[in-house]
Hints:
6 helices, disordered C terminus, elongated, mainly alpha
Amino acid sequence: METPTEPNGRLTAFGNQLIEVHLWLREELDRLRADVDSYLDGGARPRELRAHCLTFCSALSRHHTGEDDGAFPVLAEQFPELRPVLEELGRDHQLVTGTLLRLEELLGGLGAAADPGPDEAKRVRSELDTLAALLETHFVYEEKRIVAALNSLSIQSWAGAKPDFLLTTSAGSDLGVQAGGGTGP
Length: 185
């Protein structure tokens, strides 16, 4: 993901970048759900589903860990009035982590079966639906509550080397390319 710039070359505000990452995560999750739906509708099982799903889970975990360990402490220090919001977002992250763990467990079963049937795919789809509902609520709340504060920050180290919460790559590889889907922003 390239660092977005405005016409005058100034770095785009961090909150705007957060929204872009959320949009990208939503798109990746929509691709995963569409792959499972295609299989449930009688199509071939997507070969890359398990890899794409696990890579997505890893990217989402990295994003939330980056917020918990990097962005949220900075925001709490500079905007103490946001501490209750940041605590709520941290609790959301734990709920998402639980869903990701269940999803990864289900995906482990998909990898073990030579040809997993529709029941396994339905369970995966159900967890993806749960994840999508959690994330949509979480992202909307987060965007409404902290984007303005993030946009007001000027942190040089974040501009030079993006913090984890603003990355859509893992170990230098674009998630979409690595998993066989589209490309990240």
